[in-house]
Design brief:
single chain; alpha/beta; Rossmann fold; seven-stranded mixed beta sheet; globular; binds S-adenosylmethionine
C-alpha cells in the first residue's frame, strides 16, 4: 500500500498518529460501537487501515484528501474517500476526526504541498479548527498533529479544550498529537 508515487509516504508523523489511535480508539469504541470516524488528508490510507483493524465498521469510516491521487488510492483500498479541501465536500457529524496536516512553515523548512502549512506553518490547522467544530458530534474528539517548528496554537482561543496524548522528539523538531474537545 505504500508504493504509490505522488501520495504522501507514511513517515514518523504517520507512525506517531497510528500508535496514538491504537491507544486511544479502543476505549472510545467501547463506549460507542457505532462510532463515526473521519480523516482529513488521508494520504496513503494508513490510518483508515488502522482504525478498520481496531474495529471501526467500514461503513463508518469516512475520509478526504485534496490530492486526487490519494483519493483514488484510498478508494482502491476500499475506503470512502472524496476529494475535498478540508470540510468543503464533507457533510454530517463525526465522533472522531483526525488530521495529520501540512504543518511546516513554508520558507525555512519546506515547500512540499503535503507538509507546508503556510507562512507560519499553522494556517491550514487554523482553518481546520474553525470548520471542524461544525462536524463534531456531542463529546466528539479530534486528534491532530502539530510541530514545534510552526507557530504555537492557542487551542482555548480556537474554542477547544486540549491535551497532549503523545509526542516524539525528532532530531530537528518535536511532533505532538493533541486530543481536542469542542468547548
Ligand atoms: C502529512 S500528509 C498525511 C497523510 C496521512 N494521513 C499520513 O498520516 O500519512 C498530509 C495530507 O493532507 C492532504 N492535504 C493537504 N491539504 C489539505 C486540505 N486542505 N484538505 C484536505 N487534505 C489536505 C495532503 O494531500 C496529504 O495527503
Amino acid at each position: 500500500m505504500y508504493e504509490t508515487s505522488e501520495v504522501y509516504h507514511p513517515k514518523e508523523d504517520s507512525f506517531l498518529m497510528s500508535s496514538i489511535l491504537k491507544k486511544q480508539l479502543p476505549r472510545l469504541l467501547e463506549k460507542k460501537p457505532n462510532l463515526k470516524f473521519l480523516e482529513i488528508g488521508a494520504g496513503s490510507g494508513i490510518h483508515l487501515e488502522t482504525v478498520f483493524n481496531i474495529g471501526i465498521k467500514k461503513e463508518n469510516i469516512f475520509s478526504c484528501d485534496i490530492n486526487p491521487k490519494a483519493v483514488e488510492h484510498c478508494n482502491l483500498l476500499g475506503f470512502n474517500c472524496v476529494q475535498s479541501d478540508l470540510f468543503k465536500k464533507i457533510s454530517g457529524k463525526f465522533d472522531v476526526i483526525i488530521f495529520n496536516p501540512p504543518y511546516l512553515p513554508e520558507d525555512r523548512f519546506d515547500k512540499e504541498k503535503d507538509t507546508t502549512g503556510g507562512k507560519k506553518g499553522n494556517e491550514i490547522i487554523l482553518r481546520f479548527l474553525k470548520q471542524a467544530k461544525n462536524h463534531l458530534n456531542e463529546k466528539g474528539k479530534i486528534f491532530l498533529i502539530t510541530s514545534s517548528l510552526a507557530e504555537d496554537i492557542n487551542f482555548l482561543e480556537q474554542g477547544y479544550f486540549s491535551k497532549q496524548v503523545g509526542c516524539e522528539k525528532l532530531f530537528f523538531e518535536r511532533l505532538c498529537i493533541w486530543e481536542l474537545d469542542s468547548i
